[in-house]
Design brief:
The protein has 2 domains: 9-175, Thiolase/Chalcone synthase (Peroxisomal Thiolase, Chain A, domain 1), CATH 3.40.47.10; 184-320, Thiolase/Chalcone synthase (Peroxisomal Thiolase, Chain A, domain 1, 3-Layer(aba) Sandwich), CATH 3.40.47.10. The chain is of the alpha+beta class and 331 residues long. It contains 9 helices and 13 strands. The protein has helices at 38-44, 58-73, 98-105, 121-133, 159-162, 213-234, 252-262, 273-276, 283-294, and strands at 9-18, 23-25, 48-50, 82-86, 111-115, 140-148, 165-175, 182-191, 199-201, 207-209, 244-245, 302-309, 313-320. The longest helix is centred in the C-terminal third of the chain and has 22 residues, at 213-234. Helix 3 (98-105) links the parallel strand 4 (82-86) and strand 5. The radius of gyration is 19 Å and the shape is globular. Helix 6 packs across helix 7 (252-262).
């Protein structure tokens, strides 16, 4: 999608996130199969992560985040045309989650559907919603990512230190060129089935990575760099035109590889991975909400967000930050 002068813009008018009530620090986590040294904890880089409770299912967390986004947009769920729910950590045959999310929100006239695409799901959802909103039949959409990533770590494994739960949402609206909110400038979606088998879920339900960790980090960084550069080049921009890069958090190793691949100072790449863990497709809206609440990301900033996901998916979005009502989450 590329913006064409004279057409309607897609605006990001609302943002919301949700983290579980139970936030484990490293001392309160269940014991690991093998003790871990303090130096290894530092290298993993997560101090705190949320584990969803029985009343914090995928749909419930999605509704919390979407309601917060709608409130900040000053929008009513009854006026939604589209609800897209991204989730891979609790996939099932029937029923999907999105219709329940739409019902709980009160989005009675919206059509709703679920989307996978692993950790890249949120940006895939933003891209799909933005194309729908260019059709005059649709005016307002919610894209919400809700993940119980902690359920995909084998109990007692080091994965329990990394993976967390949470949800994040955008309200996207079709508006004239001078509309309010941040503008979605463009996006890029990609996939490469050559790497489809490098990550799988075992019959027991745990994530199994079938590639060396260093190779996975380099592949993730390379994929993020490629989609980001294509996106920027198409819009005649470079990384010097970007205020912040806010990627899917991944792991500490992935983050270090992204810094190298983009050749950017680390301080221009924002992640709250240390305080929430890897929340998969919800990472980007959760981090964005965090840094806006902190006052670090401000109206007028240009943000590049990128993500990869097992499959192998890659996605990037370029957007500006608009004026938003105060955040409903703590900084």
């Amino acid at each position: 999608m590329q913006h064409h002068p004279g057409t309607h813009d897609v605006r990001i008018t609302g943002l919301g996130s949700y983290l579980p009530a139970l936030m484990h620090d490293n001392a309160t986590l269940p014991p690991l199969d093998e003790p871990i040294a303090p130096g290894d904890l530092d290298r993993i880089g997560v101090d705190r992560r949320g584990w969803a409770g029985t009343q914090e299912g995928v749909a419930e967390m999605a509704v919390f985040a979407a309601r917060r986004a709608l409130a900040r947009a000053g929008a009513d769920a009854a006026d939604l045309d589209v609800v897209i729910l991204t989730n891979w950590t609790q996939r099932r045959y029937l029923p999907d989650f999105a219709p329940t999310v739409a019902r709980l929100l009160g989005a009675r006239r919206a059509f709703a559907h679920d989307l996978g695409c692993a950790c890249a799901g949120f940006l895939y959802g933003v891209g799909i919603a933005s194309e729908l909103l260019r059709n005059p039949r649709y005016r307002r959409a919610v894209v919400v990512a809700s993940e119980q990533t902690s359920r995909r770590a084998r109990p007692g494994s080091r994965g329990t230190l990394i993976l967390g739960d949470g949800a994040g949402a955008f309200v996207l609206e079709r508006a004239a060129g001078d509309g309010s909110g941040g503008r979605l400038i463009d996006y890029e979606l990609a996939c490469d089935g050559e790497y489809a088998g490098i990550m799988e879920i075992t019959d027991a339900g745990w994530i199994d990575t079938r590639i060396a960790q260093r190779e996975l980090c380099e592949l993730a960084a390379r994929s993020i760099a490629e989609v980001s550069r294509r996106l920027l080049a198409r819009n005649q921009r470079t990384l010097t035109d970007v205020t912040w890069v806010i990627p899917h958090s991944g792991t500490a190793g992935v983050q270090a590889a992204i810094v190298r691949a983009l050749a950017l100072p680390a301080e221009r790449i924002l992640t709250n991975y240390a305080s929430v863990g890897n929340v998969s497709s919800a990472s980007i809206p959760v981090a964005l909400d965090h840094f806006i609440a902190q006052g670090r990301v401000r109206p007028g900033d240009v943000v590049l967000s990128a993500a990869v996901g097992g499959g192998w998916y890659a996605a990037a979005a370029l957007y500006t930050i608009g004026e938003l009502a105060p955040s409903l989450v703590a900084a």
